[in-house]
Amino acid sequence: xxxxxxxxxxxxxxxxxxxxxxxxxxxxxxxxxxxxxxxxxxxxxxxxxxxxxxxxxxxxxxxxxxxxxxxxxxxxxxxxxxxxxxxxxxxxxxxxxxxxxxxxxxxxxxxxxxxxxxxxxxxxxxxxxxxxxxxxxxxxxxxxxxxxxxxxxxxxxxxxxxxxxxxxxxxxxxxxxxxxxxxxxxxxxxxxxxxxxxxxxxxxxxxxxxxxxxxxxxxxxxxxxxxxxxxxxxxxxxxxxxxxxxxxxxxxxxxxxxxxxxxxxxxxxxxxxxxxxxxxxxxxxxxxxxxxxxxxxxxxxxxxxxxxxxxxxxxxxxxxxxxxxxxxxxxxxxxxxxxxxxxxxxxxxxxxxxxxxxxxxxxxxxxxxxxxxxxxxxxxxxxxxxxxxxxxxxxxxxxxxxxxxxxxxxxxxxxxxxxxxxxxxxxxx
Length: 429
Description:
A hairpin with a 2-residue loop joins strand 16 (384-389) and strand 17. The strands form four sheets. The chain has a nine-stranded mixed β-sheet, sandwiched between helices. The mean pLDDT is 94. Helix 2 crosses helix 10 (360-378) and helix 3 (152-161) packs across helix 4 (173-189). Helix content is 34%, strand content 18%. The chain is α/β, with parallel strands linked by helices. It has two domains: 11-212 and 357-401, Rossmann fold (3-Layer(aba) Sandwich); 218-355 and 410-422, 3-Layer(aba) Sandwich (Rossmann fold). The chain has helices spanning 40-48, 86-101, 152-161, 173-189, 215-234, 252-259, 276-290, 323-337, 350-354, 360-378, 398-401, 413-422; strands spanning 11-12, 18-19, 33-35, 55-58, 64-65, 73-78, 105-109, 125-126, 164-171, 194-199, 239-245, 266-268, 292-298, 343-347, 381-382, 384-389, 392-397.
């Protein structure tokens, strides 16, 4: 099915009147595009329908820019949960602004969007090349973070007070929606503010973005926990290792961590519902056949098995029940009743994983995203997020990036590969 309304047009503040001060590199032409679809039959469907196949704008430095570097101040804000690589992005943005464009006024607003509201009293941090020199070696964010909505009117007031021309927002779905609201309020006022998002979500669940930074580091670190669970399970009669990983609505970390090797026997994700009876029956059969089992469960899996709650966190997200402890207790109770003795080890490495510094591949991705966020902002683009598509850096309108969560297709190749690796039944109902 094709979507003729798929529009990747990027909003701009106006004409680019200044020559770029960058030298020695390649400038990107505004007409360069990357096709959204890669399958021939999908592209053919658009052509047959009389439409043009959708394509994303290619990121990169432009030959002419909107902002005068000598008169522009920029800000960076980090929001939401921690993730490997945030400091790398802060560093990449700061160094690009200083060295590529000669901008000397870069502010780090503290504790998320709270830092853009005067009443919270958070003094901005002045970011310089010296201030960000070694921050990539540390986990977390030097700017601090927070959750919760702030009023766009108050935030834009504060940005105008500091004469900010470009605001870089590093965060996930909620942060990007907030960035879109900031861009809309600035537009309403006629204030030429460029708002550029850099997608930060360890779950890799932002739409129209192939891979978010920190995801690969999370998978690598998750594998350490899975290895420990396997060692414990294999070392005991009827041993079971249960590992809970991040993934509220999308099971990418659990799925890819399960593909690292063949130690995982069951991978449970939000996109593939299961019944408790169906899962326990399959687990009992696995123990009979193999003598041990390793289970990986994403935090958002099996929520229909838990008591519903109306509680929400500061970002407005529903507070999920703890599927890890639920399964731990359900497994133990089941095998007590069945008189089969088991040894179960439960591991939840979530906060250890998200606090890690980025690995080398993620650090490189952070640098590319940071640099290209700066190029997009300096060229007067706004209300957009930088991302990756078909292994290239691209521009995506915030409205598209936040219209739905990216999820694993239960009929797609990723999930089919997980099922082939684990040997678990496709249906556990």
